[in-house]
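Task: sequence in, structure out. Protein: SDR family oxidoreductase.
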Amino acid sequence: MFNRFDEKVVIITGAGSGLGFSSALQIAKEGAKLTLVDLNEASLEETKSKILEVVPNAEMLLITADVADEKAVENFVNETVQKFGKIDGFFNNAGIEGKQNLTENYGSDEFEKVVSINLNGVFYGMKHVLKVMKEQGFGSIVNTASVGGIRGVGNQSGYAASKHGVVGLTKNSGIEYGQYGVTVKAIAPGAIMTPMVEGSLKQMDPVNWEEVGKQFVQPNPMKRFGKPEEVGYLVAFLLSDQANFINATVIPIDGGQSYKY
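Result:
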């Protein structure tokens, strides 16, 4: 087993399920002290229990928070520093897909909701973590963008707009903070079988969503969904010292789905 995170402190948002959980588990296995953040307290407790089954001595701080609330974000950053003394890594991951509809029919309230979580929430996290990392002189941030952040996604105006914004924030902040020993990068997952993707398929067809999923992945060269743990491996690498010269860029993890772009 790697021990790339011995004595390191990592914050993960959206840690209650999906990519947040898989990344938390992988990084805990490698020795990190974790601050786990999610809006759902029960999901956070489940994540903690699953991690302790594998890593009995894992040290974790659990914080229930809404990333769209800047004061809540500032609070979990401050609590992490107060408890652990530093922040080595930040997986800025929390997000939602939102409802599906043509742009002309896409609700303005829905658009604002998706952008407030997916884009504003990412910005708030970066803003407050970057202050800490700049002062430290080290740190790595990984933002969750999407293939929907590097190409269009039909019927998902809010999601596509927010994830394109995450890509822009990532590149901009990486340019700004590289001189301080801080790197900022993003991942662009494709179709990964998470609860969010399952929910998206059920929006398309509540009854035959599994069949819809089989058709959904056919344009992918690998003809399958990705696994959350496959993303967890990538996130762990990007947050580790092995990736210290990767900065201001976006890395697809999509089985080749975005090769045309």
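Strands lie at 9-13, 33-38, 60-64, 89-92, 139-144, 182-189, 249-253.
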